[in-house]
């Protein structure tokens, strides 16, 4: 993949619930793997959405291969980050508390810590994403790109603003050092946050709010991805009952008043909907950020559908 198409190394995908952000994140990971690249797809919300999309068993706390792109010999690995496992890993890495950490887990202390301090939970989750993004061996990066299926737009700013959250927990030490490193990565050219939306009022408004919040936090925003697009059903912006009756007759269908009136009402509703969508599309375009539209998949989202969306993202 040409570096100027999707140049970041860490791609954060967010969107209001129900917009298909997990689907887009999975398709993007497939797209980035084209041409022999290795990508990691990460989820942090415990929903096992990635496993459902790829038809695998629930993901453990391990980086497992889940797919390969249609072209090339690349691969997509997936990881479900568990806060408790991440904290155990953290305790072992910085404090050499492997056995002690496992003992704490048995008595519920790990779950207690991540529950009473949600800021700590986010530091652990983003810290694991940073580690995977920057990991290297023998001078070669472990992954060419990492795609994060992030929390929804309503929480994305707080989730990524780990420095502010950590300030409530620690003024110095490994936790603060780790959060500072995460904050540096998230504000660098290596990171890009892509916002997924539908052409509906609530998702678009949440997208606008999230982009404004991320911009204020100096976190790079990438593309706005309009998901679930439908082609126009009518060639013109107006349709009359006479035209409908003529068309029904030509097709050998009933032309009684009830049928014509019902079809005319549906046509008007469709045109009203299209006007709203055009208005929302223009509102998003005013931000001056790259817009990319993905179609609604009539057959639902399966592996073939993910590859279809990946091809469109690759063409970008």
From TrEMBL:
Residues 11-177 form the ArsA/GET3 Anion-transporting ATPase-like domain. InterPro entries: ArsA/GET3_ATPase-like (IPR025723), ATPase_ArsA/GET3 (IPR016300), P-loop_NTPase (IPR027417). Gene3D superfamilies: P-loop containing nucleotide triphosphate hydrolases (3.40.50.300). This is ATPase. It comes from the Bacteria. GO terms for molecular function: ATP binding; ATP hydrolysis activity. It holds the Pfam family ArsA_ATPase. It comes from Actinoplanes nipponensis.
């Amino acid at each position: 993949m040409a570096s100027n198409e999707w140049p970041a190394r860490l791609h954060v995908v967010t969107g209001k619930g129900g917009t298909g952000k997990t689907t887009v994140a999975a398709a993007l990971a497939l797209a980035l793997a084209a041409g022999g690249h290795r990508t990691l797809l990460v989820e942090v919300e415990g929903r096992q959405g990635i496993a459902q999309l790829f038809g695998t068993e629930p993901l453990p706390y391990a980086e497992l291969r889940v797919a390969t792109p249609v072209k090339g010999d690349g691969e997509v690995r997936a990881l479900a980050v568990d806060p408790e496992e991440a904290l155990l890993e953290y305790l072992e890495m910085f404090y050499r508390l492997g056995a002690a950490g496992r003992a704490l887990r048995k008595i519920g202390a790990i779950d207690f810590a991540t529950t009473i301090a949600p800021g700590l939970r986010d530091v652990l989750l983003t810290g694991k994403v940073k580690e995977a993004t920057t990991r290297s061996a023998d001078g070669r990066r472990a992954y060419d790109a990492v795609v994060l299926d992030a929390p929804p737009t309503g929480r994305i700013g707080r989730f990524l603003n780990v420095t502010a959250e950590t300030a409530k927990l620690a003024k110095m030490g490994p936790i603060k050092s780790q959060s500072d490193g995460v904050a540096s990565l998230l504000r660098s050219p290596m990171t890009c946050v892509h916002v997924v939306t539908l052409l509906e009022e609530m998702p678009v408004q949440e997208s606008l709010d999230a982009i404004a919040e991320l911009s204020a936090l100096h976190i790079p925003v990438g593309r706005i991805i309009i998901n679930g697009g439908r082609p126009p059903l009518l060639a013109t912006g107006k349709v009359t009952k006479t035209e409908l009756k003529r068309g029904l007759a030509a097709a050998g269908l009933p032309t009684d008043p009830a049928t014509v009136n019902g079809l005319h009402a549906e046509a008007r509703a469709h045109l009203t909907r299209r006007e709203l969508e055009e208005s929302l599309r223009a509102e998003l375009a005013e931000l001056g950020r790259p817009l990319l539209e993905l179609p609604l998949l009539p057959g639902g989202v399966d592996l073939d559908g993910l590859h279809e969306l990946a091809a469109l993202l690759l063409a970008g």
